[in-house]
Design goal:
about 260 residues, alpha/beta, UDP N-Acetylglucosamine Acyltransferase, domain 1, Hexapeptide_acetyltransf, Acyltransferase, Hexapep_transf_CS, repeat, O-acyltransferase activity
């Protein structure tokens, strides 16, 4: 008697779908379980980790944790590398080497390499794949392989409120002021003043803020419409679930009031 191919095909498709759902559910469980928080630090023993801070799983390379201090309510994305010291298992003394303030967001795949002190101020946002390092290779001796020459180290300081774009590189000795914007792919060294925008490799200041004249050169896009006072987080979430047609109808209603 001939087999019904449609029945077997449907059964195979159902099995594939069930297997896929099981894999996704299992991976989601692994991600939740492997995340690091102050209450569930796992194998990591940071010098400090603030309330509400979470390191997503899987983490990148992390060593020198006792000399790393993370503030409260930070978000550290997947595959983010955080290191203190040139290599694991060093005694770096009584003071922290890597300090990360409150409310900092480190995007997926970013690296913060603190062979000497690196400080990241409160409320800094890093895009994915940002690279911050306090160490650079030296090449003084033309006869010795560069990787075997002793590196140069300089502290790095990133002021509060900065936005570091995707793929930016912050080099040893960089000192960023408050509310600095670093464009994607920029390579930053030296001092950057408060309220500046830098871009390029090497990065240069392309826009600054003046209290009397505002941004120079002027911004090319209008300022975003601020959220009205009194709007609750629940209302914002509900608004995000509206369809485009429902939003258009609401706009018509507002326009006719």
């Amino acid at each position: 008697m001939p087999r019904n191919k449609n029945v077997f095909s449907s059964l195979a498709a159902w099995r594939r779908g069930a297997t896929q759902r099981a894999v996704h559910a299992g991976w989601e469980w692994v991600r939740r379980t492997g995340a690091v928080t102050a209450r569930r630090p796992g194998r990591l023993r940071f010098g400090a980790i603030g309330e509400g801070t979470k390191l997503a799983f899987p983490q990148g390379t992390i060593f020198g944790a006792p000399w790393i201090r993370l503030g409260a309510h930070c978000v550290v994305g997947e595959q983010v590398t955080l290191t203190a010291g040139l290599m694991p298992d060093l005694d770096l003394g009584p003071d922290p080497i890597l300090r990360i303030g409150d409310g900092v967001v480190l995007g997926r795949g970013s690296h913060v390499i603190a062979d000497t002190t690196v400080t990241i101020g409160d409320d800094c946002y890093f895009g994915p794949y940002v690279y911050v390092t306090s160490t650079n290779h030296s090449y003084d001796d033309p006869e010795t392989p560069i990787g075997k020459q002793w590196p140069r180290m300089e502290p790095v300081e990133i002021g509060p409120g900065c936005w570091i774009g995707t793929g930016a590189v912050i080099l040893p000795g960089a000192r960023l002021g408050r509310n600095v914007v670093v464009a994607a792919g920029a390579v930053v060294r030296g001092a950057v003043p408060d309220h500046a925008v830098v871009a390029g490799a090497p990065a240069r200041v392309v826009r600054t803020w003046c209290a009397e004249r505002g941004w120079e050169p002027p911004l090319r896009t209008p300022a975003p419409v601020p959220i009205p006072e009194g709007i609750t987080p629940e209302q914002l979430l509900a608004l995000g679930e509206l369809t485009d047609l429902e939003v258009a109808r609401l706009a018509d209603v507002e326009g006719n009031v």
